[in-house]
Amino acid sequence: MKPSYPKYENIWDPLPVLVFIEKLYPLENLPLEKLTTKVVLLIALCSAQRCQTLSKIRISNIIKNEIGIDIIITDIIKTSAPKRQQPRLIFPFYKEKPQLCTASTIIHYIESTKSLRNGEDFLLLTTKKPHRPANPQTISKWIKKGVKL
User: PANTHER family recorded for this chain (predicted)?
Assistant: First the structure.
């Protein structure tokens, strides 16, 4: 009598966002705001993690190897529970399209923001002075802004 319907009627197409991200290249010529937007969008698209998880990424927990980078989240997040594994984000190098390579973009972002960190270990920093670790609400705004462009 009451048939079930899917929760969503349509599926979001990420292609326009990928085209926008692809245009943000070469990385050396990007201002901090656009570089940060690119890093956040790539991590969000490739990992499908919550903004809270993205805000907890620490540089000390990023392991670079010949295949790509591994990021281990050690802080407590919403999905944390006893005997449950913490998220582990794995981003391989994407040599076919370096414009869309999450691993190399993260590495470049770390190098570009080294002078702004003042000993700060969190990966994502705010784009305006004083540069502090970005909170989940700020990261959410960056993602919304990047998706609208």
Answer: CORE-BINDING (CB) DOMAIN-CONTAINING PROTEIN, PHAGE_INTEGRASE DOMAIN-CONTAINING PROTEIN
